[in-house]
Amino acid sequence: MLVPAYLFVASSLLSVTVAGSFSRFTDLVTFGDSFTDTENVSDGGVAWPVYAAGYANVTLHPFARSGATCSRAVTPRTAPPVKESQIPAFQKTLKNTTLSLEQTVFTVWIGTNDVGTQGGLITGDAPRGVTIVNVTECAVNLVSTMYDLGARNFIFMNMIPLELTPLYSSDGHPNRYWRFQRNTTEWSIFMNELVSSGNALSSLLLRTLAPRLPGASIAIFDSHALFADMYVNPGAYLNGTAPLEVKTSVRQCDHELGGGPVGGACPPGAEGSDRDSFLWFDELHPSEQAHRVVAREIAATMQGNSTWATWYS
Ligand SMILES: *[C@@H]1O[C@H](CO)[C@@H](O)[C@H](O)[C@H]1NC(C)=O
Ligand SMILES: *[C@@H]1O[C@H](CO)[C@@H](O)[C@H](O)[C@H]1NC(C)=O
Ligand SMILES: *[C@@H]1O[C@H](CO)[C@@H](O)[C@H](O)[C@H]1NC(C)=O
Ligand SMILES: *[C@@H]1O[C@H](CO)[C@@H](O)[C@H](O)[C@H]1NC(C)=O
Ligand SMILES: *[C@@H]1O[C@H](CO)[C@@H](O)[C@H](O)[C@H]1NC(C)=O
Ligand SMILES: *[C@@H]1O[C@H](CO)[C@@H](O)[C@H](O)[C@H]1NC(C)=O
Ligand SMILES: *[C@@H]1O[C@H](CO)[C@@H](O)[C@H](O)[C@H]1NC(C)=O
């Protein structure tokens, strides 16, 4: 699909003219999976939405749930999906609260489970005919769904370079998320394809959508570029007391091939201030220091000026 060039120009101009109003945000509503879950926390510490709410001095309303996909209809899993579970949960809260939607930012960070193992695309477990196109359209449609509920300010966080995580990297080992035979080279190549094409498509779809939603502001937050930069330039982000490490994780859940239950117990791994030297907490999840970086940049995006985000109106 081709988007006329003038739409991009108009959007960039608008993003400049409205930037001054971003400081008025008072509330942050978060949707997504374990990368964003604040209760079942996946980084061994505190999750980014809690840090972001603190950094930006806003009230947090967390709805993200571990294991979630975009929709049960696209990539079915037992965890509560954004479309059928998390957004309805928010709707219930909305009926009962004085939240000002004009002053509220909504974040969506989804896709990791949709493209991943255990029900997702990489293992061929998604229903027949479901591709990265369905998954990406679903994620972008969440913005329209929330707009119809009255939401106006969105930060759409794209997928990280999952092929760099120990689970999907070419030198990965059997672990609690995948303890079966796999060709790690093929996984990392395929994952790069899924993430890169999904992100390119979501960017195009969102830029097309933005001018069709009057009064809406949509930021595309380039998590992919941010994590790629943390990977190649860790000294600018990681600050722990151990040597900086972007390939292995704080906690390593090695499994014998075929051995141990998926999700089984793991040794505690690096402790204390050493943990902030790692990009990954385990084979799939970013570390707490990576979460702090995400939080800092989301707070900056809410103030209109992160280098990793662009606002479209
Ligand atoms: C945080 O926001 C509240 C209002 O929501 C305000 O009263 C308070 O002064 C703010 N704190 C800082 C440090 O800006
Ligand atoms: C918590 O997260 C872990 C890792 O993502 C997952 O295996 C587990 O099922 C989750 N638990 C709940 C109650 O969501
Ligand atoms: C996925 O997309 C294809 C092609 O657009 C469509 O035919 C199919 O119905 C979609 N599947 C789901 C589950 O949405
Ligand atoms: C809605 O508000 C009522 C009255 O304040 C409270 O008792 C109830 O627990 C709230 N329900 C939800 C779902 O927050
Ligand atoms: C794994 O896949 C790569 C890329 O397709 C291939 O070159 C390699 O031979 C495969 N390794 C094994 C052990 O099959
Ligand atoms: C690393 O920096 C963060 C702020 O981004 C800080 O909260 C944390 O304590 C630092 N970690 C260490 C080990 O100094
Ligand atoms: C964004 O602007 C605020 C004040 O306008 C400043 O404190 C903050 O450091 C800036 N952040 C970035 C990432 O430029």
Automatic annotation (TrEMBL):
Residues 1-19 form the signal peptide. Keywords: Hydrolase, Signal. The keyword Hydrolase applies. CDD domains: fatty_acyltransferase_like. The keyword Iron-sulfur does not apply. GO terms for molecular function: hydrolase activity, acting on ester bonds. This is Carbohydrate esterase family 16 protein.
